[in-house]
Amino acid sequence: MIDLGKQRRAERPGGEPSAEAAEQSPSEEPLQPKNDRPAGDSPLFAHFKRVRAADPCDLLPHTMLKKYGPEQATVRGSGLTECQYLTGSSDPSKNIYSFAIDLHAHFEKRDAEDAEEEKLGGRTIYREEYSTDGASHRSCHYKVPYEGVEGSALALDLLKTPPRGKESRPWPQRCAHAKQYLGAVVDKIMKLPPRKSRAVGVMGKDPCGRKDDLLAALGRSYKLVDVRYASPYDCELELANKAKNQKLTLRSAFAFHERQTGGDSTAEVKNRRLTMNGLYMLSTRSDHQVTKSCQNSLELRRATNRQKNDAHYVTVGLSSAKLELEDADAGFEAPPVSCTLVTKFTRIVLDGVRSSS
After folding, report:
1. Packing angle of the helix pair 339-355, 211-218 (nearest 10 deg)
2. How far apart (Å, rounded) are the C-alpha atoms in residues 2 and 130?
3. Residue 127, CB half-sphere, CA atoms under 13 Å: how many?
């Protein structure tokens, strides 16, 4: 294991030896942002902040689910916005029921076209059928869009699993049970009440909470073009340098995982197991023709036990590509990426998580 505990001088993504020299180059004219809206000033950004402040496992009414059998476990999903309640495993002759809610599932108007529209009280809800779901005869999936927020919905997945060794049979009442449960929880969940206890580890933290510090470390020669949240815990900063014809994507994301060990290294993808300040880290460098990248996945908190994939991970990555392919003869070769700079970014994000704990 290699310890990266000592701070090293950051390299520029294009190969320059220092950030300061590159910042002062007068010949570089970065692109203008795609829009003038600052990060955080949109319904979706505000919604994601409320989702992070809520705890999905606080919102599962355990008492209502006891009729399906004794509790087996309450499990948090890898994306931090999900919570799954499992019943019945204490008796191997009984069915197991899984009720899983997700405070943020992607859902837009066009998704409604492929779903069955239903009514639940005064709400419009959508039942989805997954063509690849081999358990569709014993499962039901509903989504409830948040009012005034395009692109986000509350999701409920209900699944009935037969006892071990028994035949999987259809469950005709599956959606009636799902709808009854959803009716009991939807009003409370849609209000996204703040969590009852203190958030620990990466929970509740904004992956782009240190955006200004990250941009300062990169330098003024790269212009911020866009800020995108793929989910409440996954953020990307898109940057551009017109003079270098280079586009950078800086990603910061939080999640639960089993320990990340990485696959075998190849000619184009190199994996290294390292430590940073005593914490386990997997570093991956990709050297493809069209895009080059470097990424660190840092284990902030270890898993509760070997059976639970609930280790807290902080992932920071930087990828590089050409802004424009000016002519066919110029080739597709992407500009290089500095893994040293990614290590610096990782420290900044990690410090942000710890300082807000």
Report:
1. 160
2. 45
3. 15
- Domains located in the chain, CATH noted: 2-47+200-355 (no CATH), 55-190 (2.60.120)
In terms of residues, how long is the chain? 357
Give the residue carrying structure tokens 């017109």: 242
Collapse the DSSP code of 138 into the 3-class scheme (helix H, G, I; strand E, B; otherwise coil) and give the result. helix
Q: Which residues, other chains included, contact 76 with Cβ-Cβ below 8 Å and sequence gap of 6+?
A: 56, 57, 82, 83, 84, 256, 310
What is d(CA 49, CA 46) in angstroms, rounded to the nearest whole number? Answer: 5
CA atoms within 13 Å, Cβ hemisphere of 319: 15
* Site of tokens 């080739």: 331
Reduced to 3 states (helix: H, G, I; strand: E, B; else coil), residue 184 is helix
Maximum pairwise Cα distance, the chain: 74
Cβ contacts of 186 within 8 Å, gap of 6 or more: 120, 121, 123, 144, 154
Alpha carbons 169 and 352: distance in angstroms, whole number: 49
Gap between the Cα atoms of 307 and 285, Å rounded: 29
pTM: 0.84
pLDDT digits (tens, 9 = 90+) for 64-108: 888 888 888 888 888 899 999 888 766 777 889 999 999 999 998
The token duo for 258 is: 């089993």
Kindly report, residue by residue over 232-266, the tens digit of the pLDDT: 999 999 999 998 889 999 999 999 988 887 778 88
Q: What is the DSSP pairing of strand 153-161 with strand 96-105?
A: antiparallel
The H-assigned helical ranges of the chain are: 19-23, 43-53, 62-65, 109-112, 174-190, 211-218, 339-355
Please spell the DSSP secondary structure of 27-51, one letter per residue.
Answer: T--PPPPS-SPPTT-SHHHHHHHHH
For the beta carbon of residue 30, count every other beta carbon within 10 angstroms.
17
Rounded-to-integer distance, Cα 179 and Cα 79, Å: 24
Burial class from Cβ neighbours inside 10 Å (0-12, 13-18, 19+) for residue 173 reads exposed
